[in-house]
Amino acid sequence: MGDDKAIIISTNDEQLDEVIENWAVAKTDQSTPRRLDLQRDKTRAVVDFFNFTGKRPFDITPIDVKNWQKHLESQGLAHSTVYARISQLSSFYRWLGDLPQFRGRIVNPVEAARPKPPRAYQGENVQALGTSAVKRLIETVKAKADSGSVVGKRDYAMLLFYLLTGRRRSEIAGLRWGDIEFGNEVIVSYRVKGGKRERRELRSRAPVDALLDYLRASGRLESMRPDSPLWTSHDPYNKNPDGALTSRAFVKNLKKYAQKAGINDIHLHQTRHTAAMIIAEKEGIKAAQELLGHSKEETTRVYVKRITVQRDKYSNTLEEAFGLDEE
């Protein structure tokens, strides 16, 4: 492998970090509003691995990967999180192996040490929230908004957009002023998977009114331009060049609100599951499919089946037949 291998093996930590950052940028969709969050997560995962092993890329073996897996599990990380980080390491090696100077010369150490993938929609983080829990959450966030807090008004508007549209995390977080069309009806243009645009009517006034209230309170309403982000960070240390709020920052606040509302843990994707569950139960699978934006009904059926509870239509009749209702 000669000099090419020596370039990587002899690099210091700063140079290796740069190589990893180049990979993270190359393997992240630059059109997504969450690109900075995604690149940071990818970079941290792979840097953490090499810090843990104290080795360079060409010295890594499958045993090193297995040891790292045990280390991550010992920290109490969920299996899905551990699997995701190891997958990111694998992606780094595949990218490295595709570089002209290394093509065909690198063996991906993850291939012989990859753990079993997690089951789809596994765990508490994908369960729909109950309506009583959602009401408590809304009341908690609204209380902060009503106190005059600009951050509270922003978070309240964002929460309503998530709950009342059932849209994905990036689709709401990445909204710009030009994506909202005001008129006899409000139309919102979402950037969906694949970078395409999808225009949807938003009939509920609650999220729109909350948004306008937030923009007025923040002093931004009159200066908004088409490319202005709807949601901005009011932290002077925000690193986003246009001041856009990251979905990670919103989730951090959301967890605090949830804890105050008596919800032990919450994940942003639960808002989408909750909307889907309610619509599927009240209006049927076709309505849920339209809400979620799934192209195939089969996808929605699998999605909804894993998050809904089969409603009991018969036990009261049986209770009456057995005379238990009298008791």
Main beta sheet strand tally, sense and closure: 3 strands, antiparallel
Give the helix level as a range of percent: 40-55%
- Order of helix and strand elements from N to C terminus: HHHHHHHHEEEHHHHHH
The proportion of residues in beta strands is under 5%
Descriptors:
327 residues, mainly alpha, 3-stranded antiparallel beta sheet, 14 helices, 3 strands, 54% helix, 4% strand, globular, disordered N terminus
Question: Strands, helices and their partners?
Answer:
Elements: H1 2-9, H2 13-26, H3 35-53, H4 62-74, H5 79-98, H6 131-146, H7 150-165, H8 169-173, E1 180-181, E2 186-191, E3 197-202, H9 206-217, H10 247-260, H11 270-283, H12 285-292, H13 297-305, H14 315-321
Antiparallel strand pairs: 1-2, 2-3
Helix pairs in contact: 2-3, 3-5, 4-5, 6-7, 7-9, 7-11, 11-12, 12-13
Structural commentary:
The structure is a single chain. α3 (35-53) crosses α5 (79-98), α4 packs antiparallel against α5 (79-98) and α6 packs antiparallel against α7. Helix content is 54%, strand content 4%. By secondary structure, the chain is mostly helical. A three-stranded antiparallel beta sheet has the order 1-2-3. The chain has 14 helices and three strands. The longest helix is centred in the N-terminal third of the chain and has 20 residues, at 79-98.
Outline:
By secondary structure, the chain is mainly alpha-helical. It contains 14 helices and 3 strands. The longest helix has 20 residues, at 79-98.
